[in-house]
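Moderator note: this is an archived Q&A kept for reference. The question asked for a predicted structure of one protein chain; the sequence and the answer are reproduced below.
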Amino acid sequence: MRIAAIDIGTNSIHMIVVQIRPDLSFEVIDREKEMVRLGAGGLDGRALTPEAMHAALQVLSKFRRLAESHSVEEVIAVATSATRESENGGEFLQAVTDHTGFRPRVISGTQEARHIHSAAVYGAGGPGDVARWQRRDHARQRRGS
């Protein structure tokens, strides 16, 4: 199975495309990173700016086309602190879904820290680990374990 993992962060958006093997290991097919500064201004106003949201939507649209070019079967998207902590994070997530079809899941600070720790321990880095762990969790849920 070929999947893409997208990490919508405060400063950048990462995407990794991986081929999942039957043993749940993976091979990296492609990797992209774009600086968007979604949290520009430090969220002093507690809201994502229209300019930052527009920049993020442009990048996510590009990532959608890239995923399609790699015949990705599933896209796992997560959003972190900037989206989680902003007043208009829900509006931004709806815009992402409307423009790309992606349905990002907002992860908690604890989940975000766990993924960062896993990336450091396993050395895969960034959303690749999100893909790896999300895929394992997804497989476990399907098995009911």
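Archived answer notes: The mean pLDDT is 83.
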